[in-house]
Amino acid sequence: MLYQGDTEMTDIRDTLFATISERKYRAVLTPERDGILSGVDDAMKAAAELGVIWQSTYKEGDALKTGIPFAALIAYPKEIAEAEEKIIGTLAKASGIATAARLAVTVAAGKVEIISGSWKKMPPCLKMQVRRAVITGGAQFRICEPPMLYIDKNFVRMLGSVAEALRAASAIQDTQKIVQLRGELASIAEETRQAIQGGANILMVDTGRVKDAQECLQELEARHCRQQVKVAFAGNVHIADISAMIKLGIDKLCIGKDIVDAGLLDMKLDVVEETK
After folding, report:
1. Which domains are assigned to the chain?
2. Does pTM surpass 0.85?
């Protein structure tokens, strides 16, 4: 809202609100669809920085209903205008992610663990916000709790095989070992055998191919260690795939784009009255 004058930049809102700049107004934030609220701490911080009074009984993770206000803001006109830009920006994307995560967890119904590790691919300034939104929605942001060692595809490629990667990690004790299976240097069945022999606790079949997950599960069953080793599946997995993955017997399902790239939870800020 800057205007280029002859000699300097001027915030045009100072001109527009000149006659009412000393008045205070109350505005409300209202969701335009049902969802899960996330980003509350960031919104309160933004409000404080703007000099806006934030009033709300809603907390991180609370359910929002279409058309029902969840917060009120009290401020002078310019700060109200700035709040519409900055505060909604801290809430809409985070709440969209939390809403998608909650949907995935609801569909899973406790029969498969939902993970969304794609927050790591976000710009550094957004990583913490996205990770918190994933947690708020009830999903996990990592495959298991620490201590853990994740042996990814590049480790396997550089060390030459799943067996060699796990051999290199054998000196590391008292930690969960997760190995990524891609079927590049050996078949999925052979990589599964090597992972079992190497003491892996979780096998991440990261190909997006259902037949690879089936091959891994069949090998575990054949070797009578299905109960001891967990199987995770990833690779362009969608929320719509959850039911099929439950039937397949997957333990952990990594859903990236459907959660992290979820659409905004649209919301609006409306001035409702002048206040004292």
Report:
1. 2-105+263-275 (3.90.1170.20), 140-254 (3.20.20.70)
2. yes
